[in-house]
Amino acid sequence: MIGGGVIGTSIAYHLASAGVPDVVLLERDELAAGSTSRAAGGVRATFSNPANIALGLRGLEIYSRFEELYGQPIDFRRDGYLYLLSDADDVGVFTESVAVQNSCGVPSRMVDPAEAQRLSPLIATDGLLAASWSPADGKATPESVVQGYASAARRHGARIIRHCEVTDIASSGGTITEVRTPDGAIRTSRVVCAAGAWSAAIGDMVGVPIPVQPVRRQIAFTEPIPDLPPVSPSLTIDFPSTFYFHPEGGGLLFGWSDPDEPVGFNRRFDLEGWLAGVAPIAGVRVPILLEQGIRTGWAGLYEVTPDANQIIDRSTVVDGLFIATGYSGHGFLMGPATGEIVRDLVLDRTPTYDIEDFRLGRFDRVVAAGEVNIV
Ligand SMILES: Cc1cc2nc3c(=O)[nH]c(=O)nc-3n(C[C@H](O)[C@H](O)[C@H](O)COP(=O)(O)OP(=O)(O)OC[C@H]3O[C@@H](n4cnc5c(N)ncnc54)[C@H](O)[C@@H]3O)c2cc1C
After folding, report:
1. Residue 121 has what pLDDT?
2. Ligand 1 atom with least separation from CA of 325
3. C-alpha 109 chain-centroid distance
4. What integer pLDDT is reported at residue 366 of this predicted model?
5. Relative to the CA of 329, which ligand 1 atom is closest?
6. Measured from the CB, is residue 219 less than 6 Å from ligand 1?
7. How far is the CA of 206 from the centre of ligand 1 (A)?
8. Ligand 1 site, residue 300, Cβ cutoff 6 A
9. Selecting from 3.40.640.10, 3.30.9.10, 3.40.50.720, 3.40.50.360, what CATH number does the domain 81-135+214-304 have?
10. Distance of CA 310 from the midpoint of ligand 1 (Å)
11. Mean pLDDT, to the nearest integer, of 167-175?
12. From the CA of 258, how far away is ligand 1's center (Å)?
């Protein structure tokens, strides 16, 4: 296993608890040091297709019982997701998605702007046409999930080695033979790539193109705000702009995906430049935000694929290579289901989820043509 974020630790736990011997997780830094500790913690089943909805539902189910299952509190709260819509086309698309979600058992519904404001009292409804509301969605603390999975994996015999970077993977005749690190090599015929935004480099080690690109995403936290509403959604998202917020530490956490952010591994937090982009949007949607001081913030990386959908598959080119990456902004919530899927792939069982949309082979055409676009 390469990578000690939510995906790698979940997979390590699921393999070890299924009785797979000698599970070793290599993390070059601390556990959760990659994107996982940078996530906003949102957990939702509000996707537009049944395959992703199933993974989201599993995330909600497992995180809601995580402490009972693994003995680790993760501060799970089910305060709902509210998507604010101000474009007529988006209202049509979300109305269709809500129908799909309902058919999969997700109790989401469309609401009018007045109800949206009752649900999320800090918003201004200017220009708003409608919203979609999913009361069963929630949030949790990503680092705690990683610690919970890592401890559970260790209890089942997995070894977790930190500060150990995978520098190469040797193969012979299309089959993996060993994983190399500065501290020595591990002989193995199976490797799981759960290296997040750094996954393409792992693929390069064995000649398997993994079309995942790093894109910086930033989050900021305001100073405490007196008289915040007692209940607010786990996430309120202004869909056209991608601006989102939720209460955190007595103030607000807010985020925004800068559409001009270049591809790259830059993880430096640039408050000034980012605020210049997000403030005009935030000022329209949550006017009170403009009056607040910023306490802190951080930058992390989305691991983005050309279609913004994850890759969960076994390689058809290199025997023994498994890949779980490219979640494009929603990997935290997919940790639990991913662990189950990769466990089943490694054990040569048919996963209980439909993973056809997550196959690596769907990119063969774009990779060959060099057309890797950020969506
Ligand atoms: C600002 C922000 C907000 C987000 N909000 C949400 C959210 O609300 N909900 C949600 O579901 N998702 C969210 N995400 C996305 C989520 O954080 C990621 O999709 C998820 O954490 C990916 O987990 P991972 O385990 O694949 O990757 P990571 O957590 O990045 O773990 C990969 C690990 O691999 C290690 N590694 C890489 N190369 C090597 C090597 N050669 N040898 C050894 N180790 C190596 C890295 O050090 C790293 O620790 C957000 C992301 C960001 C940046």
Report:
1. 96
2. 26
3. 24
4. 54
5. 15
6. yes
7. 22
8. yes
9. 3.30.9.10
10. 12
11. 94
12. 19
The per-residue pLDDT for range 25-64, each reduced to its tens digit, is 999 999 999 999 999 999 999 999 999 999 999 999 999 9
Ligand 1 geometric centre to CA of 226 (Å): 33
3-state secondary structure (DSSP) of residue 323 = strand
Provide the whole-model pTM: 0.96
User: Tokens 């279609």 label which residue?
Assistant: 307
Q: Which of 165, 148, 164 is nearest to 156 (CA)?
A: 148
**339 in ligand 1 pocket by Cβ < 6 Å?**
no
Nearest in space to 51 (alpha carbons), one of 330, 365, 361: 330
Please, what sign has the CA dihedral across residues 64, 55, 221, 291?
negative
Q: 251: which residues sit within 8 A by CB, 6+ positions away?
A: 221, 222, 223, 224, 225, 228, 292, 295
Q: Measured from the CB, is residue 38 less than 6 Å from ligand 1?
A: yes
196 C-alpha vs ligand 1 centroid, how far in Å? 5
Matching CATH number, 6-72+141-212+309-371, of 3.40.50.720, 3.20.10.10, 3.40.109.10, 3.50.50.60: 3.50.50.60
Decide: helix, strand or coil at residue 207. Answer: coil
> Would the CB of 3 count as within 6 Å of ligand 1?
yes
pLDDT of residue 365: 62
Using alpha carbons, select from 209, 205, 207 the residue that is nearest to residue 168. Answer: 205
- How is residue 78 written in tokens? 């089910």
Alpha carbons 79 and 373: distance in angstroms, whole number: 34
Domain residue extents for the chain: 6-72+141-212+309-371, 81-135+214-304
Sign of CA pseudo-dihedral 109, 59, 210, 364: negative
